[in-house]
Amino acid sequence: MKTKITKKTILKFFGILLLILVLSVLILFAVVIGRTFTFKVNTELGQWENATTIYPTLSPEQKKQLLGNLKVAVQIPTVSFSESEQNTTALQEFDQLLRRVFPKIFSSSLVQHEMVGNYSHLLTVPGSEPDLEPYMLLAHIDVVPADEADGWDTPPFSAQELNGFIYGRGTIDNKQSVMGILQALEYLLERGYTPRRSFYIGLGHDEEISGPQGAVNIVKLLKSRGVKLLYVLDEGLTIMDGVVDGLIGPGALIGVSEKGQATVKLSVSTPPGHSSMPPRESSIGILASAVTRLEKNRMPNLFGHGPERATFEHLAHKFGWPYRMVMSNLWLFSSLLSGVLEGQPDTNAFVRTTTAVTMFNSGVKINVMPAYAEAFVNFRIHSSQTLQEVLKLIESTISDERVKVEFVSGFDPLPISSYDEDTFGYQIIKKTVHDIFPEVTVSPGICVGNTDSRHYTELSPDIYRFAPSWYKPGDSARFHGVNERISIQNYEEIVLFYFQLMQNSDIKNLPGPRT
Ligand SMILES: CCCCCCCC/C=C\CCCCCCCC(=O)NCC(=O)O
Ligand SMILES: [Zn+2]
Ligand SMILES: [Zn+2]
């Protein structure tokens, strides 16, 4: 039998096709809108046990005292330049400062204090209930170098006050945590506090050069004592305010992992000669092209392959329209968001392995062709890539036999700590943020820099990187840059945060989800 294709059948076919198309668009639209108004992964827990026996407040005298202590801490130039270039005089002076300004801690029969690796500090505070697993707070004493000539508004080790801020190297990386943790403990001890849950405080003196003497030896000592930690909290991410378009109110990002690293040395050797008869390409030119290829061909955008997706999903309900629709529907809009994020250096660091050419040396005289040129490139590895994968990509991107590529140092990204409703450390940090900063939304994040806590993986699966410093537009340039500063009010909040965290950590069990 022959089928007859009439005009009517063709119109009918297209009619059905159009109907299917319209229906699909309507369904898609309904799903997107439905999720936009109902999507919330950031759940709150139910009724918390009250562990706050000492209310977090500061008297005017205490505010004056804690500020004075921070200033003196910033004035001591505890600079780490390299393993062989550390200011050991300053580190000794810092030790004396701690003993002087925290007399309760250093005289208390409760607190055990040990020096590790010569200048790092380990404090042990035993709890009244030894069965409760201990936790640990980390911070570091050393700072990166700072030169007033780079454009500081005040000398970097003067700790001067300007418009309600203390300026100085270390004010956000990381003396605010060192002093904040100890100040909180000092005030708790003054008010007769004894913890239920034991805890440790580790203050490294060489974090800025990877912690080979400080963190590494503290971990060795704790391991030799069979210590296991419920959670670890170190420096890291901060409270973002006004830096994420569309986010209503501030967001505290708790680093649940940190990026890996790879540092490679690139070098080119060519015969030297007279600059009046140069070859077509010099060693500098060949190396410059290789470095340019690395900068131009960035590592792939891997948004959604690591915990950075969870960051936006946990904040989704706090975004205004139309951002909220995007964040609640990343199954559809992930490439849109990843494209926007790669536009700024700080958000770009979230979505890919970053490439930073940090050193470039060559040449001896203006009329001599350079025999040798070298450059160092520092990569920060995204959670979903490995060191080996990155090294392969570097080779294939350079793809020039004249350029020697040598591996200098590196490590894989750190394991991802859990951030679900049953995870004690994450939930205690989140609760403490809410106690001290009620307007802040808490979300997991990836720490883009490295911290001493990366040495602690054998002691605990749950390592978090967060300090409650405010991070506002323009602040990214202050980390290791010029005009590092902290507001006086923020430093008071930091002391109260640790004061409350120590008490909150005394809670025995987490509440179940809110019903
Ligand atoms: C939702 C996205 C918002 C993006 C905001 C960017 C987050 C940046 C916030 C804080 C800076 C992170 C510093 C981390 C500590 C670094 C410690 C350090 O310097 N270590 C040495 C090293 O990494 O070389
Ligand atoms: Zn730091
Ligand atoms: Zn640093």
Kindly describe this structure.
With 515 residues, the chain is an alpha+beta fold. The chain has two domains: 60-255 and 415-505, Zn peptidases (Aminopeptidase, 3-Layer(aba) Sandwich); 259-411, 2-Layer Sandwich (Alpha-Beta Plaits), CATH 3.30.70.360. Helices cover 35% and strands 21% of the residues. The protein has 14 helices and 19 strands. The chain has helices at residues 7-38, 60-75, 88-101, 103-107, 175-190, 215-224, 283-296, 308-315, 323-328, 330-341, 345-351, 387-398, 424-436, 488-504, and strands spanning 80-82, 85-86, 112-116, 120-125, 135-140, 161-162, 165-167, 199-204, 232-240, 251-258, 260-269, 273-274, 354-362, 368-369, 372-381, 404-411, 441-447, 463-471, 485-487. Strands 3, 4, 5, 8, 9, 10, 17 and 18 form an eight-stranded mixed β-sheet that branches. A four-stranded antiparallel β-sheet has the order 13-15-11-16, covered by helices on one side. A three-stranded antiparallel β-sheet has the order 6-7-19. α2 packs antiparallel against α5 and α5 packs across α14. The longest helix is centred in the N-terminal third of the chain and has 32 residues, at 7-38. The chain is globular and about 100 Å long. The mean pLDDT is 96. One zinc ion is lined by residues 140, 173-174, 207, 235.
